[in-house]
Write a structure and sequence with these properties.
single chain; 255 residues; alpha+beta; 4-stranded antiparallel beta sheet; 35% helix; 11% strand
């Protein structure tokens, strides 16, 4: 289960950082731990249906002005996590929570903030990723980017009382639109990906294949690995296996 939301009881207006000109430098304390993707949104500009997933009451809407989506790209986050050690019941989420709290205390001291993901609220991560320009649909149901491929992930969502510069939308576009060979589809041994041959996405075909003894998809997605986009950002095998084995535990529990 995710950790509870982290909402320190700190008041606004105490930071001396010139937020209107801080730019990317304010995020250096996250970058050094591999949390190297950040997108700042004004809450007032978010679609109502996305705001609804944040669980904000009237007091929360009055307290917070902005949302920051934090992610990681490539292998640096995993390397930082290994240096810290895989401690606790949910080591990835706990590491993220630790680093976010340390970054806020150092970079934005005195500002009111709340971590809503990781947390209990069903935050619309993919919708936020699409608004940031990071997330485009792929046949293997993992978000892809024209440069990064699928080798990035959403790690935290914060609400803050800051006035940071809003991040321009990334306009790299979808790599799938111009992909002719579509190697991901032919690489799927379950034939689960949407295509002219299989029809729509076949979730249970994927799950049934993964649950087979000795499955080739137990600790990886062969379709995802076959995508050539963003190869230089590809996760280490240990990182890939960790996440897919974690998902297998959830699959066996719920399907």
């Amino acid at each position: 289960m995710p950790e509870p939301s982290h909402c320190p009881d700190s008041g606004p207006g105490q930071s001396q950082l010139p937020l209107s000109t801080a730019g990317a430098a304010v995020f250096s304390g996250l970058d050094q731990y591999g949390l190297n993707l950040q997108a700042v949104f004004d809450l007032a500009d978010l679609p109502p249906e996305l705001l609804a997933t944040l669980g904000l009451d009237r007091a929360g809407r009055a307290r917070f002005r902005q949302l920051i989506l934090i992610g990681h790209l490539g292998r640096d986050f995993w390397a930082a996590l290994q240096r810290r050690g895989m401690h606790g019941a949910h080591p990835v989420d706990q590491f993220v929570t630790e680093r976010v709290a340390a970054w806020m205390a150092d970079a934005l001291p005195g500002h009111a903030w709340c971590q809503v993901f990781p947390g209990p609220a069903p935050v619309g991560l993919q919708r936020l990723g699409a608004l940031a320009g990071w997330h485009h649909a792929s046949p293997f149901w993992v978000g892809v980017d024209a440069d990064w491929g699928s080798w990035f992930a959403y790690r935290a969502v914060l609400l803050l009382d800051t006035a940071l510069p809003v991040t321009p939308r990334r306009e790299a576009g979808s790599p799938c639109a111009g992909c002719v060979d579509k190697p991901c589809i032919s690489a799927c041994p379950a034939g689960a990906l949407a295509s002219e041959q299989t029809g729509g996405w076949r979730l249970h075909a994927c799950l049934d294949w993964r649950k087979q003894p000795g499955s080739s998809c137990l600790d990886r997605c062969l379709a995802r690995n076959a995508c050539p986009v963003g190869e230089r950002y590809r996760y280490a095998d240990q990182q890939i296996a960790y996440h897919y084995l974690h998902s297998m535990r959830m699959i066996r529990e719920h399907y």
